Amino acid sequence: MNKSKFSSHRSVLVAFLCLTLFSSCKDSRASSLKKQFGKNDAYFMALKALEQNDEKNAIRLFKESTKKSNPKIARLSAENLTLLGNVTERNHAAKILEAKYGDDQALLTSAKIFFEQNEFSRIISSTSKIKLQTAPEKLVELRLKSLLKKKDARLKNELFEWFTSRPLTQTHITFYGEYLKSLRNSSKTENILNSAKTQDLPQDIQIMNFRILVFNRNYATAFNEIQNILNLYKNQNSEPHYQILSDIGKAALYGTGDFKTSAQYFESLASDFVLQARKLLSQAETQNSAQSLYELAYCAYFYAARLYDRAGRFQEKAAQRFKSALDCTTDNERFDNALWYLLNMQLRISTDEIISTLKKYSERIYNRAWFDDFFDNFSVLLLRHEKWQDFYNVWKLIDSHASEETACKYAYISGRILEEGYGETDGAPKTKEAVAAYTRVLSGNSSLYYKVCAIERMNIVDKTYVTDILCSGGTEKTFTEDKDSQVLLAGYAAYGFPQKIYPQWLKDRTVLSMDANIQASRFLNECGKFDSSYSVQSLRIAARTKTFWSGKIPYELLELNFPRFYSNFVEAACAENKISEPVLYALIRSESFFDEKAGSSAGARGLTQLMPSTAADEARKLKLPADYNILDPQTNIRLGSHYFANLIERSENKSILSALFAYNAGLTNVRRWKRPPKMSMDLFLETLPFQETREYGRKLVGAAAMYGFLYYEITPAQTVRELFK
């Protein structure tokens, strides 16, 4: 349905939903919106006035809201005022916003207004205390542009600090071009800038130019500048900025073939940094400087390790240098980064070395999800080489240090290994330990796939028990609830602004209660009956809420996570092609998230993500007219389901799961993947060579199990057994 038709139905839809869905609408149905939202009503009425092009009334209502509404809505009102009225009114609103709030976001909003009006001095004054290393990039850019416009002497130093204290972006490059242009227009600097010799340029220009070479991946040229850049710092009796040293590392890594020599050079740099740091540690007032030197040593060791690894014959030295880097840093992200590189390098060397590294360093892992891809690849390596005992031992080692998803995955596979008679426990009977492994999965915040697989292995069929398992998992997270944000979302629904709900939810999702998340998803789900884009937003809210939340969740969230959009088309396609409705829903959800306009970088289109050539083949078989629309939901579902049914027929033993693998990776690849005669289908899935297909299979099995359980009276155990036949 088009947008205009949606608008004609919206008032009726919203009037119903605002009374039945949102916890903030607790008054009787006869109560007016003004009574329901009280002091916040002015904000929503101002938005209504804007819809009707009544800017004068909108300004009046926004001003009223800034004084009466809750803090969040009052601020939104103040921000809206900076966009309305004449120049004088907008400037006045910007000054009020800046004075009242004063944080970086307020400064950014006001700076945009002031810059449009050429009030550069105002911007310079108001942004004088921002931190160039951490302030929003656009805010820093507006300050520097204002300094440039006013020819302020502070520009040179602040630009250099901005360039050397944070990762480079295109914003840096664009502004730098403007800066150089201004210098060339100055008679004092024109001759210097036009010099053919890099060394004749000002030092700050040389260093910034070097960063730009690396940013543009002109590594060979950058490599030739390394010694010059280091000499600039040496001549100033200072150490290189961390970002510069990192760029030097990248230039060496990708700008030369002599990796060994470069690695030795970085080793030498790292040793010097460590020696200097140790000298400073004895003095309390220089300990911060000492740690800064250790961080530089980390960077030098890190690149020495990567260079030794690229040299190809020095993996032992590379591992030593990675470990040296780990021992130098107190920065959690840097630690995780070096450990990730070390572990992934060891995937090519020795599983024993990996286990040794995990024993020493896994307790310090900060961002556990960062390592999920490594543990997935490690799992494949262990299983392919039938290192059953190592797999079980790794589970015990990482259970409390890896992400919940990874820990539960290793628990489930360890249980299956014990069930199959492989490996040994710490002394407990294998059957008992397998049950303990599955119980870990069922009680943890694992992925849906491993939960339904564990349900099948435990043969749990009681609906109440299954529901309890699916609605719980892990330790409930603590969070700070923001009721003002919940009122804002409720108001957007009640006053008829569904288009504002999802963007606002993205900003506030970590401070919304479970109930508020569900209400937002439910509301957009209903709006999806009139505009399919809201269906997609509803599903995204539900899915992210489920991923974020631990502990008990309402049953309704499961239903919102696994909706049956386009049910009439799905039912017809399944009847025509004799395929399972739960499986087809799972396929559509996994392929496109029910986004009928979805497209992939490879060219796949629509709900079932068909390549145009595949769609054309299926269209000929179904004798569709030549002008069929691949993005039409009914057509796309019919084509995709017909193609999938054909894959089932062509798969060995007409396996549904093999057909799903083929849908993702192609039938030719699947036929190459020979399953060992005694290997179960679930363990075989874990050894597939394509990571994308492994994850695709897991998603499909989990989603199909959920659709079967929620809507078709099919237990997860039944679905898993059917798919794993």
Question: Would you summarize the structure shown here?
Answer:
Helix content is 69%, strand content 0%. The protein has 41 helices and no strands.
Structure description:
It is a single chain. The chain is mainly alpha-helical and 725 residues long. Helix content is 69%, strand content 0%. The chain contains 41 helices and no strands. The chain is globular. Residues 1-30 have low confidence and may be disordered.
Tell me the major beta sheet: none
Shape: globular
Overall pLDDT score:
92
Spatial separation of the terminal alpha carbons:
42 Å
What percent of the residues sit in helical stretches (DSSP H or I)? 55-70%
Structure classification: mainly alpha
The strand count comes to: 0
Approximately what portion of the residues adopt beta-strand conformation? under 5%
Number of helices: 41
Q: Return residue spans where pLDDT drops below 50 for at least 5 consecutive residues.
A: 1-30
Radius of gyration: 30 Å
SSE blueprint and pairings:
Layout: H1 3-20, H2 33-37, H3 41-51, H4 55-68, H5 71-81, H6 87-101, H7 104-116, H8 120-126, H9 137-149, H10 155-165, H11 170-184, H12 187-193, H13 203-215, H14 219-224, H15 226-235, H16 242-255, H17 259-281, H18 287-311, H19 315-328, H20 332-346, H21 351-361, H22 372-384, H23 388-398, H24 404-419, H25 430-443, H26 448-457, H27 463-470, H28 483-494, H29 501-508, H30 514-527, H31 532-548, H32 555-561, H33 567-577, H34 581-592, H35 612-621, H36 633-650, H37 656-665, H38 667-672, H39 681-685, H40 691-711, H41 716-723
Helix pairs in contact: 1-28, 3-4, 4-5, 5-6, 6-7, 7-8, 7-9, 8-9, 9-10, 9-11, 13-16, 16-18, 17-18, 18-19, 18-20, 19-20, 23-24, 24-25, 25-26, 26-40, 26-41, 28-29, 28-30, 30-31, 31-32, 33-36, 34-40, 35-36, 36-37, 37-40, 40-41
